[in-house]
Structures are given as C-alpha cells and as structure tokens.
Design a protein that fits this description.
Chain lengths: 202, 222, 243
C-alpha cells in the first residue's frame, strides 16, 4: 500500500487493479477513485470477487497486481464474513480487545452504550458463544459506534441482521459520511445513501 | 507493550474458559510417556538411560498437538483478520499469543516433568537437568512450531502437515536437551548445554515471530 | 541492471533465452557425465582400503553436494520471490523441489549401498547421513506444503517462507548433528574426508560434480519451461507458439 501524501479530498485511488484466481480473472485493470464522504457499493453475482476486492482494499489479500493508494495511514475498520468475536469471551471483553487492537482508549461506559445502540443492552456479560449468529454479528457491528477509523470496509454488514438493525446501521453509516468518513460496502439489500458510487463486478 | 499484556490476558482467559485445548495435549503427554515402559518391559535397568529421550520426544509431540490449534480458532472466527488490520504491531500480538501458549503448554509440561523423571528412576541431578532443559527448550519449540501453524492455516490435514514441517526443525533442541540430561546423569557439568539451549532460544525469539507474522499475512491472503 | 533483471524475469523472455541455451547445456552435461563415469569406473585405480567399492563415491558425493546446493538455490529463489514478487522465481522454486528431493534420496541410497561393504550394515547413524536424512525431511516438507496449498494464490509465498526458515535452520541442524555424532561415536573414520585424495581420484570426481550441476540445470530448465507454458497457457505468445 502506497501512501499518497497530497492533501486533497481523495481518500482512495486504485490503479490497474487486477486479480486472478485459478486461471480466471476476477477483475482486470480496475480503477477506483473515492473521496471523503463517499460510499462505494460493490455489486456482483456470487463468486464475482466482491469479497476479494474488499480484502484487497483492506490490505488483507496481497496476491494482486496494480496499486492501492490510501490517503490515510491507518488500516480501515473491516467487517468481513467472519464475525471476529471469540466465543469464550463476553460481548464486553470482545469489544475491549477489539478496541485495544485499534489503539483506542474506551471506557466500559462507551462499550455499554455502543452495545445498547445495536440493541444488545443487557447482553454485556453474556459469552458470545451463547449468542445467536445475528447477535454475534451485532457485537462486531457495535465497533462502528465505538471506534474512530476514517475508513470502513463492510462486507455484507446487513446479513443476519433484522430490519430495525439495518435501519440503525444505515443511519450510522450516513452519520459517518457526513463526518467526512469513507465507506466501502457490499450488500444484497438496496440501501439509499447520499454520494454513492456503484461498481458492478461481472 | 500494552497490547502484549492484553493479548496474553485474552488468550489465558480463553484457555481457562475452554480448557480442553490445553488439557488434551497434556493428557497425551502423560499417556505417551506411560506407554514406553509398557513397550520396553518393567526392568528398571534401562529406564534411566532412555528417560531423557522419551520425555523429550513426548514433549515434542505434545507441543505439536497444542501448537496446531494455536491460531486455528482465531483464523476460523475472523479474529486473526482483526489482528492483522490493527493499529498495533502484529508482531506484539503474535508474541503475546506465543507467550500465553507457552505458559499453558511448555511451562506446564516442565512442571510435570519431575514426576515422570521419578517414574523412570532418574537421579535427582537428572531431574533438575530435565526440568532446566525443558524450561529452555520448550519456548524454542513453541516459537518454531508457530511458524508451521501459521503456514498451514486453513488447510485440510493441517495437523499432520505441521508435524512434517516443524519436526525436523526441532532436532537441535532435541539433541541439546537430551545431551544435557545425559551429562547431568553422568555427573558432569551441563552449563555449556544450558548456554547453547539459551543461545538457541534467543536466536529463535529474535527471528521466529517475524516469520510467524509474515506467514499469518500470507495465509490470510486466500 | 534492473531492467535486465526484470526482463529476464518475464516468463516469455526466459522461455526464449532458455530455449536457445538448453541444447548446449544438455550436450555439455551429457559429455561431462559420460566422461566422468567412464573415467571413474574404468581408469581410477582401486582404493587401497576399500577396493572397487570406492567408485560409488563418484555418484554419492556429487548427489550429496547437489542436494544441498539445490536447497540453497531454492532459498535464493524464495528470497527473490518474496522481495520482488517475480513470478519466475516462484516457478523456479517449485520446479527445483522435486529434483532436489530426488538427489537427496539418491545420496542416501548410494550412502547406504556404500555403507554395506564398508561398515557391514546398510545404515549407520553417521553425522553426514543423518544430516542428509534431515535435508530429505526438509525437502519433503516443502513439497507437502506446496501440494496442500495447490490452487491457492498464496502457495508460492508460503513455500518460499518455509524454505527460508529451513535454510536458516540448516546450519544449526547440521552443526548439532555433527556434535551429537562426535558425542556418541568418537574416532570413527569418515568416508569423504580423506586427508589427501590423489589427483587421479579427485579429478574425475570434479568432472562428475560439474556434470551433476549441468544435469541439474538442464532438468531444472526443462521443468521451468513446462511450468511456464502451463501457467501462461492463455497468453497470446503461448498460443502462437503452440499453433
């Protein structure tokens, strides 16, 4: 990942991004330019390479050609298919650890209010292994209310989440955008955002 | 440095709540060692000669078993992705996990070793030497094993593969460790062996976590 | 320099250059091997201690040397691939592994055959044989990891990483095995470390070693060229080549 030091509105730029898997091109010469305050929604059929593209942009997947240039130095906040919470730890312990990883000082009150935002109030001390799939996902999504990374990369954030939850996350994303944040997401649900860019992988 | 302690605490917490991952290798260790006398016969004459070798090989295998699961659950539930995409240096997180892993595998086996040494009629000098050798040797094995564990993440039959990748790397530790016990039983000084084991440990501490973190990044890129 | 490096790193250029050089290398390797074998079997005087059995040295020593060299070459290819991401280096590493395994195996087999008349048993826990056995394990590990990861984009980097870890450990393992051997079996005579080998014995050995190196390179090139075609089968130059 190359750091672009120019100060401007651009947050992300990619040049000739090419990814090949098992002798098949997922995408070729992909050029993306994304500004602060914008959303990039990546569409495409199953297996079109949406998740791989998101992993490349997040810095997880390294077997590609081309360049990814971010305006910010930090890794983005990445929410993938895997929930990333430990079964043997409570919701609160999990979030404390995840905040530690982002070097963010959070108090127990911060965590509890973030959990309340994703309607998990009362589940603070419940082990994540005893929660449902949707609840575990919510614990992970609570990070959106807790951490301050300028870039969010969300792979199917609404899967296994009910209607109310979707509305709540959508509102949070809009709030983040108005704070000059940047969001890249994939979703099978249609959601309305201002400043949205669409990219369809075939 | 904070993250190092937080990681150790996190992993120990999980080990305490999910003890099977640490208890099973220890039970394996116990059974393997108890099987050797059954295979050899109950005459005590040969026992103390083979004690060092038997205990070391058992420790080697038990370490491999425990190392196999070291990153597995973090890989499967996505916690590893979060560690890689963190503001903290990955190497500190990896080091924290390694320390926690050693505390529940290598250290416990070291503490158990005098018991087995007694079962094999080893002299008291030998018992001390076995414990000291394990204390210095097991961290090296955990460090080297973590490279294999990181490289085989997400692969089917990862367990057997780790053994193939890592066991040859354990040879120097095995040779030095058993030689140290032999020297102690034979009544000669084993300070030299200890220094060599310590030197090996220092070199491994310096290099293995770098290889492990690079391997984790490689394995996640799938 | 860099331009040249990257140009040679491109599979197409490498395929063209290696294609024009390969015949010469093959002929040279053939001449060297035939000359070496004839010289070693027909003209070298029998050893005053071991008699004619010493002639197996002319296969054993070159294959043992090549076994280690090929691991080093794999490690060099691994560094190039990890640092510069040149795909050709990955192909080279992948193609060297089976040849190296074969040569290590050959060194062990010839060692055992040599051991039977010399020591009276097929296998002795001699320091050199043990180190070679460990080397075989390392080769097998590389191949096992590679095949377990086949189809994954990160297979090349993982294998390169493993080879690097192995190459850093190799001296430590070798040293510790030597030390272990002297500890347990002092004052045993070593086969290959004769105080002074007469020129009529080591000259053909030198020819054989060079012949083995050339042979290794020829087989390596052939494998690399096949793998290039396999990986690049969709590119235009390969299609034109095939038609």
């Amino acid at each position: 990942m190359v750091l672009n030091t120019q100060m401007n509105k651009t947050m992300l730029e990619t040049q000739q991004l090419t990814c090949e898997r098992n002798h098949r091109f997922l995408f070729q010469d992909l050029s993306i330019s994304l500004n602060k305050g914008e959303v990039l929604q990546v569409d495409g059929a199953n297996g079109a390479g949406k998740s791989t593209l998101l992993k490349i942009l997040a810095g997880l997947y390294e077997d590609f050609e081309g360049e990814v240039m971010w305006q910010v130095e930090d890794y983005p906040l990445y929410i993938g298919h895997k929930v990333g919470v430990k079964d043997a730890m409570s919701a609160r312990e999990n979030l404390m650890w995840l905040a530690d990883l982002q070097a963010t000082e959070v108090s127990q009150g911060d965590i509890d209010s973030a959990l309340a935002k994703v309607s998990l109030a009362g589940y603070e001390d419940v082990l994540c292994g005893e929660m449902s799939e949707g609840q575990r996902k919510r614990v992970n999504l609570a990070r959106l209310f807790l951490l301050h990374n300028p870039v969010w990369i969300l792979d199917e954030p609404f899967s296994a989440i009910d209607k109310e939850g979707v509305a709540c996350i959508t509102d949070r994303i809009k709030e983040h955008l108005s704070d000059a944040g940047t969001v890249i997401l994939t979703s099978h649900q249609t959601v309305e955002f201002p400043n949205i860019q669409s990219l369809t992988l075939s | 440095m904070n993250i190092l302690l937080a990681t150790i605490r996190r992993d120990l917490l999980q080990h305490v709540r999910r003890p099977a991952d640490i208890v099973n290798p220890l039970v394996f260790f116990l059974i393997v060692i108890s099987l050797f006398p059954l295979g050899i016969g109950p005459s005590a004459g040969t026992f103390n000669e083979i004690a060092a070798g038997v205990i070391w090989v058992a420790v080697l295998l038990a370490t491999l078993l425990s190392i196999d699961v070291m990153f597995k659950s973090d890989y499967e539930d996505g916690a590893l992705e979060q560690m890689v995409l963190s503001k903290q240096p990955l190497i500190l997180v990896v080091l924290g996990k390694l320390i926690a892993q050693w505390l529940v595998s290598g250290l416990l086996m070291t503490l158990m070793s005098p018991l087995f040494a007694l079962m094999f009629f080893v002299s008291s000098d030998g018992i001390l030497a076995i414990a000291m050798a394990l204390l210095l040797g097991t961290p090296t094995m955990v460090l080297l094993g973590s490279i294999g564990a990181a490289l085989t993440l997400g692969l089917k039959n990862g367990g057997v593969l780790i053994a193939i990748l890592v066991l040859p790397l354990y040879i120097p530790v095995l040779i030095l460790g058993t030689a140290m016990v032999d020297a102690a039983v034979g009544g000669s000084s084993y300070t030299g062996h200890m220094l060599w084991l310590g030197a090996l440990l220092l070199v491994t501490i310096g290099l293995a976590p770098i290889a492990t973190q690079a391997s984790i990044r490689i394995s996640l890129s799938q | 320099m860099w331009n040249w490096f990257h140009k040679l790193g491109s599979p197409k250029t490498f395929y063209a250059i290696s294609g024009s050089l390969l015949p010469y290398f093959c002929v040279l390797a053939g001449i060297m091997l035939v000359a070496g074998v004839v010289w070693a079997l027909g003209f070298v005087p029998p050893d005053y201690q071991q008699g004619h059995t010493v002639r197996i040295m002319y296969v054993h020593v070159p294959s043992a040397i090549l076994a280690q060299s090929s691991y080093m070459m794999m490690a060099a290819a691994g560094v190039v691939y990890l640092v510069w991401r040149i795909k050709l280096a990955d192909i080279a590493l992948q193609c060297a592994a089976p040849i190296g395994t074969g040569l290590t195996f050959l060194a062990l087999i010839t060692g055992a055959i040599w051991g039977k008349p010399t020591w009276g048993t097929w296998w002795v826990w001699d320091a050199r044989l043990t180190s070679t056995l460990v080397l075989l394990f390392l080769f097998v590990g590389v191949m096992a990891l590679r095949s377990a990861m086949s189809g994954k984009a990160s297979a090349g980097r993982a294998t390169a990483m493993l080879v690097l870890v192995g190459v850093m450990n190799l001296p430590i393992i070798k040293y510790s095995v030597d030390w272990w051997f002297t500890l347990h079996q002092p004052s045993s005579f070593s086969l290959t470390e004769k105080p002074s080998m007469p020129p009529e014995m080591w000259m053909p050995l030198l020819v054989m070693v060079l012949g083995f190196y050339l042979f290794f390179f020829c087989v390596w090139m052939l494998r690399i060229r096949t793998e290039i075609l396999n990986r690049e089968y969709r590119s235009r130059w390969v299609r034109e080549l095939v038609q």
